[in-house]
Amino acid sequence: METITIVGGGIAGLALAAALDSNRFQVAVYEKRSELPGVGNALGMWPNAQRALARLGILDQARAVSPVLGSGSVRNAQGEPWITVDAGEMFGISRIDLLRLLDAAVPGSVRRITGQVRDLPADGGLVVGADGVHSVVRRQGWGPGADARLTPYLALRGTLPAPVAQEEVGEYWGRGDLFGMAAARGGSFWYASYRSGLGPYGIDVPSVLEQARQRYAGHAPAIRRALAAATPEECLVQRLWTVPHLRSYVRDGTVLIGDAAHGMMPTLGRGACESLVDAVTLADLLNTLPQQQALRAFDRRRRLPTLAVSVASSALGRVALADRAQPLRDRLLNLARRRNDRAAVGSGSER
Length: 351
Ligand SMILES: Cc1cc2nc3c(=O)[nH]c(=O)nc-3n(C[C@H](O)[C@H](O)[C@H](O)COP(=O)(O)OP(=O)(O)OC[C@H]3O[C@@H](n4cnc5c(N)ncnc54)[C@H](O)[C@@H]3O)c2cc1C
Hints:
Elements: E1 2-7, H1 11-19, E2 25-31, E3 42-45, H2 47-55, H3 59-64, E4 71-76, E5 81-86, E6 91-94, H4 95-105, E7 111-114, E8 126-129, H5 136-142, E9 149-160, E10 170-173, E11 177-184, E12 187-195, H6 205-215, H7 221-229, E13 235-242, E14 250-251, E15 254-256, H8 259-262, H9 271-288, H10 291-320, H11 326-350
Parallel strand pairs: 1-2, 1-8, 2-7, 4-10, 8-15
Antiparallel strand pairs: 3-6, 4-5, 9-12, 9-13, 10-11, 11-12, 14-15
Helix pairs in contact: 1-4, 1-9, 2-9, 9-10
The chain binds flavin-adenine dinucleotide.
């Protein structure tokens, strides 16, 4: 049997372990966490991720524990909507629920090793880097030039037991900051992002929460209420990092998937979705083709689409988090809203 070592038992690594043919491969997953995380944010599942979950046989279970996202608006800092987007069948799954379902889908034949990988195994088998944005596999195979880049932004997110009112759902764009609110299992989920010199590691949650309350003090009442109700125990904070665009996700018996390959700005909410698609694509190719052919096909199928999503996420991040360009952005969006309103009135009078 061929051996496959997966470094990282997060979303990408577990999905891959669940989808590989256990009659064909001897699979080992290394994960440095000893248990599932206790606090997690909600992850919006786009249609491509839903197809990946269906392939893994866990779409119905994922849907059953997640609220449908419905419609939400992009708003100004005061909460006035510019654009309303219907998210269709998209649902928001808690990261903990997703990890739990993926974990349960991994066959018992897969060897699980708890511990941090520092040197890659040299047993001649395939090594898969599913070890996130600070991937040790990428560092060893692609060199320090491919190390993650620190963005100037911080992300603070949390869950609340109270539901969010439909007229408050969406994303609020201020000057150099954004704030989002959506439904989550058992209540609601919120996130905030802005420039910050804190960190990059070991950032103190209570002090960031206090900083956010001050920063958003002049914003919409819904934001102020959410931040007032937030508790440090239900919050996560981190600086945002991205991975430089790689020429290939495959090198010398090693392949990268998920954030290890294309860690991106979270603005579009697509990183976890693309990680799931990477995992099932790679598994299906390895299950059916000779290894070299499978790896080449994986690179061809996944590199450009994920690059495009990453570029689009950064571009949207620049608009959403605009600082000096904020007055111009707001004028353009106000104009677009007025045009839309006029068009809606016009089409109403024709009827
Ligand atoms: C603020 C924020 C909001 C987001 N919102 C969304 C969203 O709404 N929708 C969406 O699709 N995506 C979202 N994302 C992106 C999403 O979280 C990531 O894309 C996804 O977690 C990537 O999964 P992964 O398995 O590749 O990496 P990770 O989730 O980082 O998992 C890597 C795993 O590898 C382990 N590991 C690392 N190094 C080692 C080592 N040396 N040895 C052993 N184990 C190791 C880690 O412990 C971890 O479990 C968001 C990200 C952020 C920061």
